[in-house]
């Protein structure tokens, strides 16, 4: 893929990285040494993902979340025309997912002006990265219609309306929470047509699943 101008972060942990016999700093100097000299890369990517705190640690000793952050840095630090990033949320907590989403979008799209294909199933990360949403509707295995691109809010609402499920985002940890079917919040959001409520200050645990 590198020969095609693609920087790829695989879904699972790259075994070649896991087997590296050295520190985080060592592998960065080996794989993305040019990027380490870029002040903006250090500020917008390395500092934002808190990689400096891992620099002296052995790569083989990293936890799943730490390895994920390192893998994202190595991918973004590789010069490419297209960045292909598979499941970057794996191993990250909710706050780290939002940070990672903003880092990838800011570096690849806003700074480099390149294209990124990011495969992701996590609502938190998808909401933080997406500008537009395409909703596919139909019968599984029978027919499918791709709707026109729409805003993130409209897309999420349409998707959840088809499932007859309401979500809200926790104001503290930003994690999506499913409202109990028939609960006050569920009824109010359906009545307002807000199947995915992005900002919610009224927290009621007894409405949750």
Q: How would you characterize this protein structure?
A:
The protein has 209 residues and is an alpha/beta fold. 40% of the residues lie in helices and 16% in strands. The protein has nine helices and ten strands. Strands 1-2-3 form a three-stranded parallel β-sheet, with helices on one face. It has a three-stranded mixed β-sheet with strand order 9-8-10. Helix 6 links the parallel strand 2 and strand 3. Helix 6 runs parallel beside helix 7. The radius of gyration is 20 Å and the shape is elongated. The model has no long low-confidence stretch (mean pLDDT 89).
**Count of separate DSSP helical elements:** 9
Topology as H/E string? EHHHHHEHEHEEEEHEEHE
| Rg over CA atoms | 20 Å
N-to-C CA distance: 43 Å
Helix content: 40-55%
Share of β-strand residues:
15-25%
Task: Offer a few descriptive terms.
209 residues; alpha/beta; three-stranded mixed sheet; 10 strands; 40% helix; 16% strand
């Amino acid at each position: 893929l590198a020969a095609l101008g693609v920087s790829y972060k695989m879904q699972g942990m790259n075994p070649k990285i896991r087997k590296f016999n050295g520190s985080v700093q060592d592998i960065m100097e080996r794989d993305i040494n040019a990027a380490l000299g870029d002040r903006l890369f250090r500020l917008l990517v390395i500092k934002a993902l808190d990689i400096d705190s891992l620099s002296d640690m052995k790569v083989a000793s990293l936890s799943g979340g730490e390895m994920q952050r390192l893998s994202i840095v190595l991918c973004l630090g590789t010069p490419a025309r297209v960045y292909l990033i598979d499941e970057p949320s794996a191993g990250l907590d909710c706050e780290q997912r939002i940070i990672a989403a903003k880092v990838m979008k800011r570096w690849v799209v806003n700074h480099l002006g390149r294209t990124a294909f990011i495969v992701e199933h996590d609502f938190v990360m998808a909401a933080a990265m997406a500008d537009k949403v395409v909703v596919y509707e139909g019968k599984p295995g029978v027919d499918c219609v791709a709707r026109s691109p729409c805003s993130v809010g409209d897309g999420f609402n349409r998707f959840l309306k088809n499932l007859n499920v309401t979500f809200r985002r926790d104001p503290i940890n930003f994690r999506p929470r499913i409202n109990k079917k028939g609960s006050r919040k569920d009824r109010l959001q359906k009545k307002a047509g807000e199947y995915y409520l992005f900002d919610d200050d009224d927290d009621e645990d007894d409405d949750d699943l």
